[in-house]
Amino acid sequence: MIVGVTDGFTYEMKIVYSHFPVKAMVKGPEFVIENFLGEKFPRKTSILGETKVEVKGDQVVLTGPDIEAVSQTAANIEQATRIRGFDPRIFQDGIYITRKAGEA
C-alpha cells in the first residue's frame, strides 16, 4: 500500500490494428474505443477508482495508487476489444497489455 501512494502503479497497453484505424479516448469516467473493426457504434468501458488513463498515439498508459483498480481497468479495456466469431490468427486487432506494474 505504501508503494502505491508514493510511486503508484503503471500499466502500459498498445493499440494494434491492421484493418481499420482505432481511435481511443477518455470521456469522463469512461474509456471510449471508436472505429474498432469498422463498427459504427463505439465500445465503452469504465475507469475504476482513481486510475488515470492517458492515450498517446498507439500507447495507452494507466496509472494509479490502487493496483487492483489499475489492473481491473486494464483488463476491462482488453476485454472490450475482444473479438468473437473471427479467427484470432488473422484478426489481431485490439488493445493489449504490454507492461504490468511490478515487471522490469
β-strand amount: 35-45%
CATH fold assignment: Outer Surface Protein A, domain 3
Which series of helices and strands comes N to C? HEEEEEEHE
Enumerate how many helices there are, as a single number: 2
CATH superfamily: Ribosomal protein L6
Could you give a short account of the major beta sheet?
Answer: 4 strands, antiparallel
Helical residues, percent: 10-25%
Which stretches are low in confidence, meaning pLDDT under 50 for 5 or more residues running? none
Q: Total number of β-strand segments?
A: 7
What's the CATH class label?
Alpha Beta
Can you name the CATH architecture? Alpha-Beta Complex
Our Rg estimate from Cα atoms comes to 14 Å
Q: In angstroms, what separates the terminal alpha carbons?
A: 19 Å
Residue-averaged pLDDT: 91
Shape: elongated
Structural class: alpha+beta
Return the domain count.
1
Q: In what order do the strands lie side by side in the largest sheet?
A: 5-6-1-7
Write the layout of secondary structure elements.
Layout (H helix, E strand, L loop, with lengths): L1 H5 L2 E8 L6 E5 L2 E5 L8 E4 L5 E5 L2 E6 L2 H14 L13 E6 L5
Antiparallel strand pairs: 1-6, 1-7, 2-3, 3-4, 5-6
Short structural description:
The chain is an alpha+beta fold and about 100 residues long. It is built from two helices and seven strands; from the N terminus they run αββββββαβ.
